[in-house]
Amino acid sequence: MSKGRFGVRAGVRDCLTAGGVAAALMVTGMSSHHSFTGLDVLGFALLAGGGLALAAGRRAPVPVLAVSGLCAVGYQAAGFDVPAVAFLFAVYAAMRAGHRLVTVVTSVAVLAALPLAALASGLHDTGEAFAQARGALEIAWLIAAGAAGEALRQAERRADEAERTREETARRRADEERLHIARELHDSLTHQISVIKVQSEVAVHVARKRGEQVPEALLAIREAGREAARELRATLEVLRDDDTTPPPGLGHVPELVERAGRSGLAATLTIEGQRHDVPAAVGRTVYRIVQESLTNIARHADATQASVRIAYRPDMVALQVDDDGKATPDTAPPPGMGLLGMRERVTALGGRFQAAPRGDGGFTVQAELPVERAS
User: Fold this and answer.
1) Measured distance CA(353)–CA(116) in Å, rounded
2) Selection from 258, 257, 191 nearest residue 228 by Cα
3) In this predicted structure, what is the pLDDT of residue 374?
4) What is the per-residue pLDDT across 70-95, written as a single tens digit (0 to 9) for each?
5) Which residues pair with 320 in a beta bridge?
6) What does the pLDDT look like over 166-192, one tens digit per residue?
7) Interior CA angle at 187 toward 183 and 192, to 5°?
8) Which of 128, 129, 210, 317 is the right S-S partner for 119, CB 3.0 to 4.6 Å?
9) How far lies 214's CA from each of 219, 220, 222, 226, 338, in Å?
10) In the Cβ-directed half-sphere of 225, how many Cα atoms lie within 13 Å?
């Protein structure tokens, strides 16, 4: 709930205003009525009800406008010559909320009903009734209340437009910064990665041309160069907001496992459950976890086998990557940036992540990513 200039909540201000108006109406009514007949009690109830209804003016301006108008007409008919202050507040609130047509129609209706209510009280003749109605709700005050509400509504609308303009400016600056980062990445990395890729391709070609056996390390360098070039190109497209090439996702996981197998690691992929569409963020996270896990296995695990298991469930996608390396609970290294990055990705999507050595040897990475299915 919003707060005003002095830190008072809007709802509290509305209640204080309603209580003050109701008290003022009651005091004014008591100054001219000292008896407590049944009709007088009804009049006092209408005075209090018209004022207290203003507490809901911010949430329901049109109903409050109708209630305060009926109360004003009611206590005039009961013989209370009290200004319709609560109705003026309600006109202001309804006009501020943008209900101009309803406010004008209701105001005209109340203006027409007040003289009739004064006549119905039986305390005035026709001339006195119109004079009393005019005193209870001067047209000038009614117009002023409506104009004040409309002016404030226009000011709030201009403030909202200015806020939107600031957001658009910030968004444009962020887009410009992304383009700047993309250019910097292109200038600083693309050339070096291209050199690595070309040199490894040439080395493999020359070795095969000479009939020599190509070292596995050289093949791995060539494949890593190709993958780095693809990854950099995809990153640059994202930074440029280029949606022509979709980011890697679940459909690209088999390629990761196949490349791991070509590098000397016996990697297998198992998919369980009925495959269904998942959000792009979930698919991208699964891809990155599998990619980082296979990279860690190849670099640090001293493993010969790795298994990737993806299970589709109605409300989530579960992922598990196992290896047969030499990691044990007693020799577990501290988590590096790769594991921290995987945990952050999963946590950002509201999932669960666990990575730890197994008791019988080897390392296991598990992730559960929730999927919000469209009905």
Assistant:
1) 74
2) 191
3) 38
4) 888 887 777 777 777 788 788 888 87
5) 309, 366
6) 777 777 777 677 666 666 666 567 667
7) 140
8) 129
9) 7, 10, 11, 17, 30
10) 20
State both tokens at 284: 């991208």
Judge contact between 273 and 311, C-beta under 8 A.
Answer: yes
At 122, list the tokens: 């039986």
In which residue ranges of the chain is pLDDT below 50? Answer: 1, 4-7, 136, 139-140, 242-244, 373-375
Strand stretches in 245-362, DSSP E: 266-272, 305-313, 316-323, 352-357
Q: In this structure, which amino acid lies at residue 292?
A: E
Q: How far apart are CA 134 and CA 138, in angstroms?
A: 5
Tallying the residues shown for the chain, one arrives at: 375
> Taking a C-beta distance cutoff of 8 angstroms, is the pair 301, 326 a contact?
yes
User: Over the stretch 188-217, which tens digit does the pLDDT of each residue have?
Assistant: 676 677 678 778 888 888 888 888 888 888
Please name which of 199, 206, 244 lies closest in space to residue 224, comparing C-alpha atoms: 199
The one-letter amino acid at 259: R
CA distance 67 to 328: 75
How open is the CA angle 66-71-76, to the nearest 5 degrees?
A: 130
- Rounded Cα distance between 132 and 134, Å, is 5
- Which pair of tokens denotes residue 344? 């952050």
Structure tokens at 56: 């809901």
Residue 315 CB-half CA count within 13 A: 2
Give the amino acid at 347: T
pLDDT for res 272:
93
